[in-house]
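In this supplementary section we document a worked example of the pipeline. Step one takes a protein sequence of length 294 as its only input; no multiple sequence alignment statistics are reported here. Step two produces a three-dimensional model, which step three serialises into structure tokens for compact storage. The input and output of this example are shown verbatim.
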Amino acid sequence: KTAPVTSWDGNNSWQTNNANIHLTCSDGNGSGCSVTKYRLDTNSASGVLYGSWQTYDQNIFVQADGNWAIDFNSTDAVGRIETTNTSYLLIASAAPVTSWSGDNNVWKTSAQSVTLSCTDVVSGCSSTKYRLDSDSTVSVSYGNWTTYSSAIVFSDDGNFAIDFNSTSVAGVVESKNTKYLLVDSNKASTRWDGSNGVWQTGAVSVALTCSDLLSGCSTTRYRLDTDASSTISYGSWLTYSSAVSFNSDGNWALDFNSTDVAGNVGDINTHFVLLDRVAPSTSWSGDNNTWRSS
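The serialised model returned by step three reads:
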């Protein structure tokens, strides 16, 4: 008087590999099971779009990722049809993908705030973790893994590595991502090898040297005074490539500074090259080689 009962050996939880499902019909003391049928969802998303009913034989094999509904029931030997059972096969073998909002390996001149975003279109994201480099040099010294909850702020200058990845609801762990966040808020400094404000009697050649301990020096530039007097009249800025020569007598101002790779522009230095190669002349008030009586 009762319909048969059909069970399955699957589960309604997410799994990370193929599903091999078996259906088992039981009719107790009844007339016995005649046929078991099933139909599969063809829509991998949470929506359901069933295919045709099929007669069950040995197993149902599902290997594609997705949220798959499966309907099944059995009919006994006297024609009693079981109420349709609906279960779900949840398969997610692909790892989630985690993106970040930073610029990898690009020097910045101020504190940076980095966000991490996980995407998993099948089972969804469960958690995102990260670990930070505590060594501001090019060497890496990682701290402990931390569960991501809000933006990560880098306020110190340095070259910092960050590792991060995510785990899906199905339990698939993403491969570790490694990025580098570079912060350099300090200006480059430039020195010269001249003698500032000291008169010299021969041609002068001045070398400029940039120093920047973090991002490194990008360019050094200078501009020369074109007025030999104490008045200053600058020419155009020039990119420094080799020693600057001073061959003409005068009081010459020299401005120079450098820009580092991060884009910090150094303060302008002003020095003076004083050059006088002509000996002084001395006059007298007497009559040369002329006899006088008193």
